[in-house]
Specification:
Length: about 270
């Protein structure tokens, strides 16, 4: 093999190696795993690295209140055979039991019913300079099938939610039905202005939907993400929140690719 052909081969290898440095496919997956024997039967969502807020005043949810918000420990999630990816706490292998839920509660007035509801995590940052996000998905099993969820993301200090909403074909009345009745929801990621609107959110102060964007989604890393519903009627449930992305090759690798291609053309 002459020098020109070798240059082309090396360029191709460099590109492949560069792409390999960025995890293709699933870059984040939260499975809300079953608590360990030393944890409560239903552990706090905060132990899983998530935060929860409700109502016009963006009131933080607190474990133990009526309409508690927890990670369920006695029912199987959906699906039940996938490992966590870049989520906290780190889980090796797969754990079938566990999903997130904000309960309908029992007795008294439930502050988590009939209100806006927002659940999110900042445990992982999506580097958009090396990852081109393609989709965000989750399994949804709300008690009321017409309750609509939206994808939420934070870029910088600003929050955005999808204009697309996700309801269900069937209601999931009981936690034990989640595995078989939860529905896969998939948001095809886009930066188009028409696909996003502003979420005005200040913890403990205010939460409201703003206007649809007038320009495309800004550049920058996605520093937090989750789900938002503008009206939670009863129990809210989801599992296996997943972000998929394609790797963006490093500039140096693209330069080598160009050099290799030029060398091959000269050889001809």
């Amino acid at each position: 093999m002459n020098r020109l052909a070798m240059t082309g081969l090396l360029a191709g290898i460099a590109l492949t190696m560069s792409a390999g440095n960025v995890h293709a496919g699933v870059i984040y997956r939260e499975i809300f795993p079953q608590p360990t024997p030393t944890e409560p039967v239903d552990k706090s969502f905060r132990q899983a690295g998530w935060q929860s807020y409700y109502g016009d005043s963006a009131t933080p949810s607190t474990p133990g209140q009526i309409g508690y918000t927890l990670v369920h420990n006695t029912a199987t999630g959906a699906p039940d055979n996938l490992p966590a990816v870049n989520s906290n706490p780190v889980v090796s292998g797969s754990q079938s039991i566990g999903f997130f839920y904000a309960s309908n509660g029992s007795g008294g007035s439930n502050p988590l019913n009939g209100v806006k509801y927002f659940i999110w995590t900042d445990e992982y940052t999506v580097d958009r300079s090396t990852n081109e996000v393609t989709q965000i998905s989750w399994y949804q099993g709300n008690e009321i099938k017409t309750d609509e969820d939206r994808v939420a993301i934070r870029i910088g200090s600003d929050w955005y939610v999808s204009t697309q909403t996700f309801a269900q074909t069937n209601a999931v009345g009981a936690a034990g039905d989640f595995k078989t009745k939860a529905e896969l929801k998939t948001f095809t990621f886009s930066t188009n202005a028409s696909d996003w609107q502003i979420l005005n959110f200040t913890s403990g102060t205010s939460m409201s939907l703003g206007s649809v964007l007038s320009s495309d989604l800004p550049a920058g890393d996605i520093t937090a993400f989750g789900l938002y519903t503008n009206y939670k009627t009863k129990t809210f449930r989801f599992d296996t929140y997943e972000i998929q992305a394609d790797p963006i090759p490093e500039p140096a690798a693209l330069g080598l690719l160009g050099l290799g291609g030029l060398s091959l053309l000269r050889r001809r």
